[in-house]
């Protein structure tokens, strides 16, 4: 019996040994699956230690540069003047690429001298979708990237002012600052107040509204010769009418050249050209006939063409068949005086006998000239070369009425009190 007991005990001890062996095998298997060392006796083992090490390695490779793009991704109604910019902290910009998505046209821009900012060089297009791609690097050379897509404000919800004269131009003493808006303006005072005009001559300049879409500025008398004029348009974000916001922030300037005032006497058929108070020349002319007389009044040269086509049908002079009473494809040395078709121009198709003796035109002022605009010895060529945009041509003694102030750049035909009364301020 004792022997049986001992043997049974040996069996029990053997079973226990097997159990211990199996337990060890299971433990090894579990450690192996978890990616550990297989040391079942390790103390304080952390199963997340390997993940933390991986995160640390990834963090070490991440750029410290933080890129910021204005506007945010997928933004709408973005301003076209100052609505877009890129900046970076803890790094510098490497490249900034901005493109219109529909055309692929790249937008020129400039990275700041310190490398931390970028802005477009010019005004963006309205109702256009753009993509921005930015790359920056930190002090360790590690790169960061960011992208954004946005759409600029729609023309239906914005306004701009097209301005005359051109930036950097030299003009005559009669040139007003004329703004033509692409939307009707109801908040006229705010818009007029957002136009700042500074003059080197110290002349006071006042605005006058011609309807809801045109605002002109001028001094009481003609500009002083040699004046430098700077105009700032601060329309960006300005509500000009319900739901209509400005997108323009622009400064332009121009210089006033010498003073040239030319007086056309329709009765004597002569034009006297006076510069800075001195008569340069008296030129024989032919103005509008009795049936189609030339407007009286002060008219400002607003356009110049070496040659242009003149068709009577475009200004209401048609025959019984509806065709223009005249159609001349190569009118030389033409300068516009009104929006309704009044020009002072060269005339090669009429007899030279009419100049200085007879008024024969449909309302224009004609000077003797040559076909092809290539003879500098003609009166037409001479006057063209002597004239600037903004010079004043005054017509007197014509049987017609005085030209309306808004027909061309001709606000000088309104007295100063009336002009000032047309200001919204």
Note down, in words, how this protein is organized:
The protein is α+β, with helices and mostly antiparallel strands. The protein has three domains: 88 residues, Immunoglobulin-like, CATH 2.60.40; 101 residues, Sandwich (Immunoglobulin-like); 154 residues, L,D-transpeptidase catalytic domain-like (Beta Barrel). Helices cover 15% and strands 36% of the residues. The chain contains five helices and 28 strands. It has a five-stranded mixed sheet with strand order 22-21-20-28-23, with no helix packed on it. A hairpin with a 5-residue loop joins strand 5 and strand 6. Pathway: Cell wall biogenesis; peptidoglycan biosynthesis; Glycan biosynthesis. Keywords: Acyltransferase, Cell membrane, Cell shape, Cell wall biogenesis/degradation, Lipoprotein, Membrane, Palmitate, Peptidoglycan synthesis, Signal, Transferase. GO terms for molecular function: acyltransferase activity; peptidoglycan L,D-transpeptidase activity. It comes from Streptomyces xiamenensis. One of its GO terms (cellular component) is extracellular region.
